Amino acid sequence: MTAAPAPGNEPQPPEPKHPPSPAPAPASASAPAPVPPSVPAPVPTPGSPAGPASATGKAVAIAPDKAVAGWRGWGAVGAVALGIFCLITSELLPVGLLTPVGADLGVSDGTAGLMVTVPGLIAGFCAPLVTVGAGRLDRRWVLVVLIALMAVANLVAALAQGFAVLLAARLLVGVSVGGFWAIAGGLAVRLVPAHHVGRATALVFGGVPTASVLGVPAGTLLGELGGWRFAFAAVGGLGLLTLAALLLLLPPLPPTRTITFAQLPALLRRNGAVRAGVAVTFLLVTGQFAAYTFVRPILQDVSGVNAAYVSTLLLGYGVAGVAGNFLAGARDPYRTLFTVGASLTVILALLATVPGAVAGTVLLLAWGLVYGGVSVSLQSWMIKAAPDDAEAASSLMVAMFNLAIAAGALAGGLAVDGISVPAAPWAGAALMALAAVTVRITSTSRTATRAVTGGGEVSGSSAASNTTDAGGRAEARDASPADRR
């Protein structure tokens, strides 16, 4: 807040010491005193009837300053997080089911990998398209429609009698994933009071790594117990439950700001850190899914793991990944992602060359632990790189993340069909090495810039703090409609 000018230093011509009062109003014990135009209006305390008007003159609400968020707000956050978990699980479900799906529908493992490539590719394009196209629509209904589309798509996949029908259903999953993820990422600030936004955002984005590391193993286990069709049907049923949760818990979310298509390339042109973050996202996620899409044949053909134990090992991978997510959550994203890239280069190379079920098990668990911190670290990178354009930066990251899933699955499929199964983790290792080099170059460039400018560039932690402080007041205007229902 800007301090008031010292006595005697008022700008000319001098303004009255006491600004004219507005038209008389009925006296009220709770009515705020008139505020000089040069001083921002105070934030209402809990129970205040209304907030200040926005720049457009439309009244907007201010989050109540509560010690504990209302249950409706946190219930809505939980419903959105469940939606993210359900969607990412749906996108990655075929990873553990490639072999049985391919055998049942008469396609190779490489061709079956298109079940991951197609939704990833579509989601990458739909992330910015839905974000821009839904500018004037209530976000609540956009999310409801997208989650319903995902549920129906999985039920259709469960009934598909040919690979073409299954692939068409997977295309609809991609539309849902890209649009839902891009919109949901910025909703926490509108569902809970300002001082809980960080925790709520972490919960929403926690659905991404949790789905990656737990949803896929659970789906694989269901596929082994009841067949791959049962696994798809189960995810469709979970989508219907999520739909009910969104309808019950999510408040109306009218649009508060819009993004234009021109903003996205403009942000890439002027912000080198955002460009680097998008590049690192592409390299890490492509490398991950070049190998992870074919983790089942890798474990069986290279490590010699019995097929009956694959789902159990993937569950262990998931538990390790959740631990990695929490370990990385509060750490510097640049250092974390460099460590991830360098470590996965070694792990995937060893997985491609070292035989033995014990070695394969140890390497798989290490893989899950290291990769678990990728999603939260990439999100932190983008927020630090563009604190004033976080929504646009996140949209770019989501788009590239999903395009990279598609690119990785496609590259791995070509490597498996054209060379051999070990070629998939080798391709992943090469991309992880490039990611580590890119992070190192970016970190060195940031350090050099701060040294040349004498510390004029805001550090990562300071940027995050400033974003919270400065953005907290601005974003709080949209917060907690759930508490006011």
Describe this structure in words.
The chain is mainly alpha-helical and about 475 residues long. About 70% of the residues lie in helices and about 0% in strands. Helix 5 packs antiparallel against helix 6 and helix 13 runs parallel beside helix 15. It is globular and about 55 Å long. About 50% of the residues are buried. The N terminus and C terminus are likely disordered.
Give the helix/strand class. Answer: mainly alpha
Order of helices and strands: HHHHHHHHHHHHHHHHHHH
Oligomer type: single chain
Unreliable residue stretches: 1-69, 452-485
| Main beta sheet strand tally, sense and closure | none
Care to give the gist of this entry?
The chain is 68% helix and 0% strand. The protein is mostly helical and 485 residues long.
